[in-house]
């Protein structure tokens, strides 16, 4: 939120924290104003309406998740010294990303992405962050191709989308009454990535 008015930044940050605490529909404009110590007039000066505050707070949350993921993936994968080392690092990334402690984060991302289904404004607001993540992962795949750690015929963007899809798709297990054995999940992901990469 570079070059954004401090009042707008404050409202967005407080709204994001309230969403984390109560959900996107679990608080009122009055609670936002009280917690941020900002007037209603200032809110409506910087935002179209309360839904606009929520939308921008969700985009901020989503962008934060994206930046954390890019940093972790880049730090680990660029340090790979061999194909096997890369696979070991991918296993570590998978175990971290798919840990049950990150179930809330997965559901938050799904909720935010779902908000774009019927809202062109939300879709357009999320697009830069989502594209940044896909491009960053694709760039890492290209780097691994340059090092000859992965198959040369792979399309980096397709790999990037696939990785995101199976990671977010784990939400199916997060809400299951009979969750899978995560050691078996990690073994399958490890075998799969070694097979197609």
Can you give me a brief rundown of this structure?
The chain has 197 residues and is an all-alpha fold. 75% of the residues lie in helices and 0% in strands.
Order of helices and strands: HHHHHHHHHH
Structural Rg:
19 Å
Measured as a percent range, the helix fraction is: over 70%
For the record, the CATH architecture of the largest domain stands as: Orthogonal Bundle
The number of helices is 10
- Outline the low-pLDDT stretches: none
CATH topology of the largest domain: Tetracycline Repressor, domain 2
Helical/strand content category:
mainly alpha
Which descriptor suits the 3D outline?
Answer: elongated
Largest sheet: none
User: Which CATH class of the largest domain?
Assistant: Mainly Alpha
* pLDDT averaged residue by residue: 92
What separation lies between the terminal Cα atoms? 36 Å
Number of strands: 0
Taken as a percent bin, the fraction of beta residues is: under 5%
Quaternary status: single chain
| Count of domain modules | 2
What characteristics describe this protein?
0% strand, Tetracycline Repressor, domain 2, mainly alpha, 197 residues, Arc Repressor Mutant, subunit A, elongated
Describe the structure.
With 197 residues, this protein is mainly alpha-helical. The chain has helices spanning 6-22, 29-36, 40-46, 50-77, 83-97, 103-114, 120-146, 156-169, 171-174, 182-196. It folds into two domains: 1-47, Homeodomain-like (Arc Repressor Mutant, subunit A), CATH 1.10.10; 58-196, Tetracycline Repressor, domain 2 (Orthogonal Bundle). Helix 1 crosses helix 2 and helix 4 runs parallel beside helix 7. The longest helix is centred in the first third of the chain and has 28 residues, at 50-77. The two termini are 36 Å apart.
């Amino acid at each position: 939120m570079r070059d954004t008015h401090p009042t707008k930044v404050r409202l967005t940050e407080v709204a994001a924290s309230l969403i984390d605490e109560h959900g996107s529909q679990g608080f009122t404009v009055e609670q936002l104003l009280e917690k941020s110590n900002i007037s209603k007039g200032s809110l409506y000066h910087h935002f179209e309406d309360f839904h606009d505050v929520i939308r921008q707070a969700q985009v901020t949350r989503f962008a934060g998740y994206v930046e954390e993921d890019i940093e972790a993936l880049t730090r680990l994968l660029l340090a790979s010294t061999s194909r096997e080392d890369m696979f070991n690092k991918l296993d570590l990334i998978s175990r971290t990303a798919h840990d049950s402690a990150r179930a809330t984060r997965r559901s938050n991302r799904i909720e935010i992405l779902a908000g774009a289904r019927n809202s062109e404004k939300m879709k357009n607001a999320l697009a830069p962050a989502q594209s940044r993540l896909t491009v960053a992962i694709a760039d890492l795949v290209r780097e691994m191709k340059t090092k000859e750690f992965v198959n040369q015929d792979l399309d980096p963007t397709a790999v990037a989308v696939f990785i995101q899809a199976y990671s977010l798709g784990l939400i199916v297990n997060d809400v299951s009454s009979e969750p899978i054995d995560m050691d078996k999940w990690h073994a399958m992901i490890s075998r799969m990535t070694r097979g197609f990469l």
